[in-house]
């Protein structure tokens, strides 16, 4: 693993996130920035995928269950070669392949349309079960928000994934502590996360979601336990990489002004 290369890519993708949300005039910068290091690791280090053969039979699949963080996924898809870089300028525009939430019928590289919180996790569980039944080798990776796991459907999937021994399912919680209306601890406390998922029978690993060495270790450890799905709790910072956005509730779903956009790009260029 080339950590310096991954850091360089994640910084580039952060710039793309800010630019596309500014251009669209709407979007979700905070949760996109907190998730981008995990997404960078998956797309540029971990997953068995091929942009030239996007429907490869035994490929790994990624499901962005927290679909509002679509700018992070789109930035990675453009960098990886699934879509043209120029498409990022069309985020949320009428007729664009880059909708406010990922659309599998419009955007190459998107396997599952997401947006309604919790349903992407359910879809990921179904994909993992289908791969088991069909004896396919591909793993299913799914990224959830910590506010998202307040949804009841999440805990149905938590039970069924253990029931069906889905050890080809690796879920990641982007634990940045903030959701739309405030902090998760104040709205509907999701802690203690590790103990809760362990009680459902999952293999649970914690990591620093912005440290590539720690991320690598977590994903390596996910394969050490057989017959259990794995939950990686990635401790992150909302708006990571841009000082005035970091750990700030106000940046959940607000586009930056021109001045704020320029200041953010300047910070990321240092």
Report on the structure:
- It is a single chain.
- This protein has 270 residues and is of the alpha/beta class.
- The protein is built from nine helices and seven strands.
- The protein has helices at residues 3-24, 29-46, 70-80, 119-133, 152-163, 184-187, 193-199, 212-221, 258-268, and strands at 61-64, 140-145, 169-175, 178-179, 182-183, 203-208, 230-235.
- The strands form two sheets. It has a five-stranded parallel β-sheet, with helices on both faces. Strands 4-5 form a two-stranded antiparallel ribbon.
- Strand 4 and strand 5 form a beta hairpin.
- The radius of gyration is 17 Å and the shape is globular.
Please provide the count of β strands: 7
Largest sheet: 5 strands, parallel
Q: How would you describe the shape? A: globular
* Intertermini distance: 23 Å
Query: What is the topology, as strand order, of the major beta sheet?
Result: 1-2-3-7-6
* Mean pLDDT across residues: 97
| Overall number of structural domains | 1
Determine the number of helices (DSSP H or I, runs of at least 4 residues). 9
CATH fold label: Rossmann fold
Task: List strands and helices in order, with pairings.
Layout: H1 3-24, H2 29-46, E1 61-64, H3 70-80, H4 119-133, E2 140-145, H5 152-163, E3 169-175, E4 178-179, E5 182-183, H6 184-187, H7 193-199, E6 203-208, H8 212-221, E7 230-235, H9 258-268
Parallel strand pairs: 1-2, 2-3, 3-7, 6-7
Antiparallel strand pairs: 4-5
Domain Transketolase N-terminal: 11-255
Organism: Clostridium frigidicarnis
GO molecular function: metal ion binding; transferase activity
């Amino acid at each position: 693993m080339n950590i310096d290369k991954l850091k360089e890519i994640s910084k580039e993708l952060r710039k793309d996130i800010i630019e596309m949300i500014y251009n669209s005039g709407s979007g979700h910068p905070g949760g996109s920035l907190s998730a981008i290091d995990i997404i960078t690791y998956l797309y540029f280090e971990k997953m068995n995928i091929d942009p030239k053969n996007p429907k490869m039979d035994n490929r790994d699949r990624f499901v962005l269950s927290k679909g509002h963080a679509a700018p992070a996924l789109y930035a990675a898809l453009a960098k990886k070669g699934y879509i043209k870089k120029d498409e990022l300028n069309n985020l949320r525009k009428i007729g664009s392949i880059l909708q406010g939430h990922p659309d599998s019928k419009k955007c190459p590289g998107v396997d599952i349309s997401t947006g309604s919180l919790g349903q992407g996790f359910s879809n990921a569980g179904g994909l993992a079960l289908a791969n088991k039944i069909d004896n396919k080798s591909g793993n299913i990776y799914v990224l959830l928000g910590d506010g998202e796991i307040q949804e009841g459907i999440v805990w149905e999937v938590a039970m069924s994934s253990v029931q069906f021994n889905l050890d080809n399912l690796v879920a990641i919680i982007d634990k940045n502590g903030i959701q739309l209306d405030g902090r998760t601890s104040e709205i509907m406390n999701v802690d203690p996360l590790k103990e809760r998922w362990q009680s459902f029978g999952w293999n649970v690993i914690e990591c620093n979601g912005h440290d590539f060495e720690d991320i690598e270790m977590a994903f390596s450890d996910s394969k050490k336990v057989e017959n259990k799905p794995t939950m990686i709790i990635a401790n992150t910072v909302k708006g990571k990489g841009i000082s005035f956005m970091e750990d700030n509730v106000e940046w959940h779903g607000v586009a930056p002004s021109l001045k704020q956009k320029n200041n953010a790009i300047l910070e990321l260029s240092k």
